[in-house]
UniProtKB/TrEMBL annotation:
The keyword Iron is annotated on this UniProt entry: no
Gene Ontology molecular-function annotations: ligand-gated monoatomic ion channel activity
A cellular component annotation (GO) from this entry: outer membrane-bounded periplasmic space
Name of this protein: Transporter substrate-binding domain-containing protein
One example of a Gene Ontology biological process annotation: amino acid transport
Similarity-based family: Belongs to the bacterial solute-binding protein 3 family.
Origin: domain of life: Bacteria
Length: 273
């Protein structure tokens, strides 16, 4: 945990040196959400806690991941504490709509349907979809004509873009909705589904974490999807504050450092349960 805190401090130091100091006060807020955040001294961020390397609960019970570091950096810039609200993926949007959380930072793809419900800040990264299966099953399916056939079962996270893409691209396959990725991996092991359709980062991580299962994933993503921070509709001041922070964060290279830490370096895997 100390290493993570020090890492965030280094990132914020670079941010402060490279940019004018971001000062947020009640007097200049003029924003109902920002007023609420400043009054309580806490920003509440919703995430699932089961989307490594975006976010996950470590063996010590702490939230870690790309999204966690990003949320902590934002809280530091606003001079408030960070409170992570653990919410299942299908309930993330309703959590911010109901005011349980101030924003979503949870590897959420920006889509037109979701944009009707929440306001997305411009992407903080681009992801892509892939398939995870055992090497034996993947080879069989490729030999027998692929996944778009009756009798094929593909797991996908409920209320996710993965589920939508399965419906569009392999409509003959049966979709098995799951609440989290561990549930999907268990179903693959038990041969109750043929594959998992998910973000390529999730599929690659599953291969690394489960060497005895002989999992494989595709070499190239099947799609490209922007990932963004989601905010409640109707608060332009709060939206602009978060957007300005995210744009500045990218410009000074701090996003690159986070991507390197969580997607290119596997040291954090030792913290997983």
């Amino acid at each position: 945990m100390a290493a993570t805190v020090n890492f965030i401090r280094r990132l914020i130091l670079v941010f402060i040196i490279a940019l004018p100091v971001l000062v947020v006060t009640k007097a200049n807020a003029e924003s109902p959400i920002l007023d609420r955040v400043l009054d309580r001294g806490v920003v509440k961020v919703a995430m699932t806690g089961d989307q490594p390397p975006f976010n996950v609960v470590s063996r010590s019970g702490m939230f870690i991941g790309y999204d966690v570091d990003l949320a902590q950096a934002l809280a530091n810039a606003m001079n408030v504490e960070l409170e992570i609200i653990k919410v299942p993926f299908p309930e993330l949007i309703s959590a911010v709509q109901a005011g349980r959380a101030d924003m979503i930072i949870s590897g959420m793809s920006i889509t037109s349907q979701r944009s009707k419900q929440v306001s997305f800040v411009e992407p903080y990264m681009v992801s892509g979809k892939s398939l995870l299966a055992t090497s034996e099953r993947m080879a069989q399916l490729e030999q027998d004509g692929g996944f778009n056939r009756l009798g094929i079962k593909v797991a996908a996270l409920k209320s996710s873009t993965s589920k939508t893409l399965v419906q569009l691209n392999i409509p003959k396959a049966e979709i098995v909705g799951v609440n989290n990725y561990e549930e999907a991996i268990k179903l693959i092991r038990e041969r109750k589904v043929d594959a998992l359709f998910a973000d390529m980062a999730i599929c690659k991580l599953a291969v690394l974490r489960n060497p005895n299962d002989d999992f494989v994933t595709l070499q190239r993503p099947l799609s490209m999807e922007p990932i963004g921070v989601a905010l409640p509709h109707g608060d332009l001041h709060f939206f602009n504050l978060v957007r300005n922070f995210m744009v500045s964060y990218e410009r000074v290279g701090l996003m690159t450092k986070l991507r390197s830490k969580w997607f290119d370096n596997g040291e954090w895997l030792a913290q997983l349960p």
